[in-house]
Specification:
The chain is of the alpha+beta class. It contains eleven helices and 14 strands. The strands form four sheets. The protein has a seven-stranded antiparallel sheet with strand order 5-2-1-14-13-12-11, sandwiched between helices. The protein has a three-stranded antiparallel sheet with strand order 6-10-7. The two termini are 25 Å apart.
């Protein structure tokens, strides 16, 4: 199996006992009846410079519509190099860029970079509040219903906090959308350019970008047959275009969602973060509901609504990337995060860290 750093032996490391069963666990969720948790998945587990496991299960494309499978000979198998809509894993990239930009400090008031943001009682909100989800802003706004960019920004400027900044944690897409405005004002560059400059180009993450070109579609996992009432827009089966309705309304480039990537690229991202010791702001910490038994010793990670997740365990210098298209063909087929937690537990036990 491949290594992720230079100067190491080209021989594949021995897979820890029990780790191969992780794939069997995932397969059980993919083949569950009457409805699978996801159509397919790619898992990549690593420790130190070694990739210990990188396998694919199930299908990247299976359904023609929410109520109809494609003819069996048109199903597209999941492959280790399949590219996924990362959904909220995008937030980690926005947070990492923030730590890389000299023009932005954690205790800067957001309004010092974006004066319009300070309206409606938002003046005390700092960059730190946005990253920690303690701004007091509610989870989301219907930007997808706005006619243009001016209306979308006006909606955000007019929004008032529902709690005093710094007093309570409310997970909110608005925090990372606001942070996108801060980064773009402070640097004069668009977010997609900043992600490329500070993360994907230096790490050779060639499968990671916003708005993937049409030539990538054969490698991309399909997501949802998006329509009302379960969706907020009527867009049909989505394949190669961002799933999140607000990110779509923003042109596919948003601080909270929009990136596409592969397991290999995310392994490079995880490895770089572990090597540098962070930054961890914007990450969830020790969350058993999706980390399983990896949680409890300072594990950090995040999930994405489309079925994506990653967990890094600095204590064991290991990481687990699990990418699934769990909204294919529709978001309300999936329930909970049992597959993610089971994978985290299997990995932790295989490494002997619990």
């Amino acid at each position: 199996m491949p290594r992720l750093s230079k100067g190491t032996s080209p021989e594949a490391p021995e897979t820890p006992d029990g780790l191969s069963a992780l794939v069997d666990d995932i397969r059980a969720y993919v083949e569950a009846v009457p409805r699978p948790w996801c159509a397919g998945a790619v898992v990549l587990a690593g420790r130190g410079p070694d990739v210990l496991l990188h396998e694919a299960v199930g299908w990247a494309v299976r359904y023609a519509a929410y109520d109809r499978e494609l003819p069996r000979d048109q199903w597209v198998p999941m492959r280790p190099g399949t590219i996924f809509d990362l959904a909220s894993l995008t937030k980690l990239f926005t947070a990492t860029v923030t730590a890389s930009v000299d023009a932005v400090e954690l205790d800067d008031p957001v309004a010092s970079h974006v004066p319009e943001f300070g309206a409606a009682g938002k003046g005390p909100i700092t960059v730190r509040h946005l990253l920690d989800h303690t701004s007091g802003l509610r989870p989301e706004l219907p930007f997808h219903d706005c006619p243009d960019a001016a209306a979308r920004t006006a909606l955000l400027w007019a929004e008032a906090p529902v709690a005093e900044p710094g007093t309570v944690r409310i997970y909110s897409d608005l925090n990372l959308i606001a942070l996108q405005h801060v980064l773009e004002r402070a640097t004069g560059e668009a977010l997609d350019a900043l992600v490329r400059e500070h993360i994907t180009d230096p790490l050779a993450m060639y499968d990671t970008r916003f708005n993937p070109p049409a030539s990538w579609i054969p490698r991309i996992a399909a997501t949802e047959d998006q329509r009302r009432p379960w969706g907020r827009l009527d867009r049909g089966m989505l394949h190669g275009v961002v799933h999140d309705e607000n990110a779509y309304a923003m042109g596919g480039v948003a601080g909270h969602a929009g990136l596409f990537s592969s397991a290999r690229d995310l392994a490079l991202f995880c490895r770089a973060l572990l090597d540098r010791g962070g930054p961890w702001r914007g990450f969830e910490i020790d969350q058993p509901w999706f980390m399983g038994e990896l949680a409890g010793r300072g594990a950090v990670g995040h999930t994405g609504f489309t079925g994506t997740s990653l967990v890094l365990d600095p204590a064991s210098d290991s990481y687990l990337v699990l990418l699934a298209n769990s909204v294919h063909p529709r978001r309300d087929w999936r329930e909970g995060s049992a597959m993610r937690a089971a994978a985290g537990t299997r990995f932790a036990r295989a490494l002997g860290v619990v």
